[in-house]
Amino acid sequence: MKPPPFLYGTAWKEEATEGLVTAALRAGFRGIDTANQRKHYFEEGVGRGIAAAGVPRDQLWIQTKFTFRGGQDHRLPYDERAPIEQQVAQSFARSLEHLGTDRIDSLVLHGPSRHDGLGPDDHAAWRAMEALTADGKVGALGVSNVTARQVDAIVRFAAVKPRFVQNRCYADRGWDLEVRTACADHGLVYQGFSLLTANRHLLAVPPISDLAERHGKTPAQIVFRFAQQLGMLPLTGTRDPAHMAQDLAVADFTLGDDELALIARS
């Protein structure tokens, strides 16, 4: 199953997670991004929100993540003394329970174990994730919080290539140009998160403010449409039902090449 053109992100919502996921699905979102990392996500709440919304599973695209010990708090979804391969399997089994499903559309390595390059734990985790695709329990693999060099490294190493790369997208880094270029080189889909929160200083000033007025859209809609037209798969984590509807409505207008170039330079 292909992902929809917009994903609803569930990080940092704690006790509000269930209700917000239900609201997002009822608003029309069909892609959900989460992680089995209790430090920043409440995956069990995501599952309850999905169940409450009543959307058939075959109409949903669900993505979750395996997170190494360094990115977790004390609420671990696996035995930290176990080999990495077992940690992946244990985390994944818990994700299926949390989300009330027997399959995951995309399983993401939630950041490599080191800042530069890949280490043995990354290789072990990826091999374990590949095994889950062989069992038919996972549709596609991805990696997040990576550099362009790490994208190149994992593509060279992987027997099952990643399909997705998910990064925080900063305008002052060319909207993550280096990583997006690596994705384009390898035919991967770039998922951009924090498109608004990482770039708040740009939303109320030209060119985004001018383009919003020209098109009769909000600055957020301009950013999300820009992202889509660049080939990104954007995430939004809004808690506002009105913003949920606005975000889903961005496909009804098109930015011109000159407008895209203005935003790209911002």
Describe the biggest sheet?
Answer: 8 strands, parallel, barrel
The number of helical runs is 11
Give the strand tally.
Answer: 8
Shape verdict: globular
Provide keyphrases for this structure.
TIM Barrel; 8 strands; alpha/beta; 8-stranded parallel beta barrel; 266 residues
Layout of strands and helices, then pairs:
Layout: E1 7-9, H1 17-27, E2 31-33, H2 43-53, E3 61-66, H3 84-99, E4 104-109, H4 120-134, E5 138-144, H5 148-157, E6 164-168, H6 177-186, E7 189-193, H7 200-203, H8 208-215, H9 219-229, E8 233-236, H10 241-248, H11 257-264
Parallel strand pairs: 1-2, 1-8, 2-3, 3-4, 4-5, 5-6, 6-7, 7-8
Describe this structure in words.
- By secondary structure, this protein is of the alpha/beta class.
- The protein has a single domain, classed as TIM Barrel (Alpha-Beta Barrel), CATH 3.20.20.
- It has helices at residues 17-27, 43-53, 84-99, 120-134, 148-157, 177-186, 200-203, 208-215, 219-229, 241-248, 257-264, and strands at residues 7-9, 31-33, 61-66, 104-109, 138-144, 164-168, 189-193, 233-236.
- The chain has an eight-stranded parallel β-barrel, surrounded by five helices.
- Helix 2 (43-53) links the parallel strand 2 and strand 3 (61-66).
- The protein is globular and about 55 Å long.
- The two termini are 35 Å apart.
- The mean pLDDT is 98.
